[in-house]
Specification:
4-stranded mixed sheet; about 55% helix; 4 strands; alpha+beta; about 140 residues; single chain
Amino acid sequence: MMKKIAKFYERYLDLEKRFNEAEKAKDEKGMEACREGYQELLQEVRAEGEDFSNMMRLYTEMKQRGNKLLDVSGSYTEPEEIIQMFKKFGVTEFTFSSNWTNAMDTAWAFTKMGCNLKGMVEIYSDNKKFMGNEYEKGPAFLFTL
């Protein structure tokens, strides 16, 4: 299923590239065609289901930030659902970089569900550098399933 997500992501990149070219050329019709194509892409992703949509979001964030693994970075109250989804999609490694109040509880829940904490790694976080487009680096737990 990750191959299918990768294909959707490639379509997204193509639409983004064509939109930027149309915008540079002041081609309103081309820009509108890309907007419509993007809405169609979103509908196709949503039609695949909630888990697929969530994985698409995580995959897109991973690619845009320049990371090699999917990263769980928000506040999640249902770690069981995350692990079930990862297993469904064949994910064998992921990072966890949440710094929310319940982050330690979530990391502990991952280990109780059979995930192995391999250590810590540095990833590109969801924070962008001040006045720039680059993502800041930050620490993350590395888990395997």
